[in-house]
Design a protein that fits this description.
Length: 369
């Protein structure tokens, strides 16, 4: 496990003793230091991910960076394909906050894998979806995009730590409905995170909405001013510090204990047919790791109050909130790299439910290195 190092007075002692030894060597005297500095670990790489609230200029990142450094978290590297965009204070400004971007477009166009490959983050700090909410995109579709991005993050690093914000309030003059849309979308995030989180790659929800005022903390009803930047950084700080204190694995794919461990996979939902009061769905699980999988588990979170009633080509359990966990059958668990397995199900749904939709995620069992 890798942890950030807090700066230590022992390093300063070693530096002074080393200088003293250099001065005394011509006199035939030597000084042996009492301590030796440990080899520097690679810094923990943190990607701030989102839209203009994160990147244009996204000055909460500067506030957060300086608070972390002041608190002793010295082995940090904020990463992203975009450079610093102002803010008027020294900080590590690399970020992945693209102004105007929709999270649904990033998912649909597969823009994230290239950005991950270029920056190799250990932790992703994500405030993303404001433009989607403004565009009146359905929460189910936004959450499906979240799920796809998380899957791509785990393909980059199976142990990715992911912090996801409940969005700051929004009340632009041109969108009277936006304020309530944010409330409704934020209400869905905790259940999505519980269904998506894994032991190896936990998803932590950070409440950026509570206590944030569009009147006092933004300059246009959407983008934070200096007061808003301080509030956003203050909410990110304890969640990120907790992850840093717990430590992150040294590298993606570090050798672990013998046996089997979760591997990378993707899950895709498809509605086969529907009727009033229910529908037939299908989920395809694909092994995206470089190793063969000996089994898989999929999580299905049906939208609009639907519940899985029958499953074939897998076995399932359903939680009280309707979340279903499906494990492979005896004959379809083994998947070569790139191979897929499909299971089907029938779901019951309220008569008022709209088109069938579900958020799906998966893990695969692969041999440990």
């Amino acid at each position: 496990m890798r942890r950030t190092r807090r700066s230590s007075p022992h390093l300063r002692i070693v530096t002074v003793l080393g200088l003293l030894a250099t001065l005394l060597l011509p006199l035939g005297l030597t000084v042996a230091p009492r301590a030796t500095a440990a080899p520097a670990a690679d810094p923990v790489r943190v990607m701030p991910l989102g839209d203009s609230i994160t990147g244009s200029p996204g000055c909460w990142r500067a506030v957060l960076w300086n608070r972390l450094v002041t608190s002793g978290y010295t082995d940090l590297d904020f990463v992203g394909t975009l450079p610093t965009q102002g803010c008027g204070q020294a900080h590590d400004g690399d970020n992945e906050g693209h102004g105007g971007e929709l999270v649904t477009n990033v998912a649909d166009q597969n823009l994230l894998p290239g950005r991950l490959a270029a920056t190799r983050p250990d932790i992703v700090v994500m405030h993303f979806g404001t433009n989607d909410v403004w565009s009146s995109i359905a929460p189910d579709r936004i959450l499906a995009a979240y799920t796809k991005l998380v899957t791509q993050m785990r393909a980059s690093d199976p142990d990715m730590r992911i912090l996801v914000a409940q969005l700051i309030p929004m009340n632009p003059s041109s969108c009277a409905a936006c304020a309530q849309r944010v409330v409704e979308f934020n209400a869905r995030i905790p259940a999505w995170a519980r269904a998506t989180s894994t032991d190896c790659s936990p998803v932590t929800v950070v409440d950026q909405w509570t206590g944030f005022s569009t009147a006092g903390d933004t300059y246009d009803g959407v983008h934070p001013n200096a007061s808003g930047d301080d509030k956003i950084a203050a909410r990110w700080y304890p969640a990120l510090a907790a992850v840093l204190d717990a430590g992150v694995p040294q590298d993606p794919g570090d050798p672990g204990d013998p046996g089997e461990e979760p591997g990378a996979c993707t899950a895709r939902f498809r509605a086969v047919s529907s009727w009033q009061g229910g529908y037939q769905g299908e989920v395809t699980v694909t092994n995206t790791s470089a190793s063969a999988a000996s089994g898989w588990t999929a999580t299905v979170v049906p939208a609009a109050g639907a519940r899985l009633a029958q499953v074939w080509n897998g076995t399932h359990t359903t939680a009280a909130d309707g979340t279903a966990t499906v494990t492979n059958a005896a004959w379809n668990g083994a998947l070569a790299p790139g191979a897929s397995a499909t299971f089907g199900f029938v779901a019951t749904a309220p008569a008022t439910a709209g088109a069938p939709a579900a958020t799906v995620t998966c893990t695969a069992k692969t041999p440990a290195a």
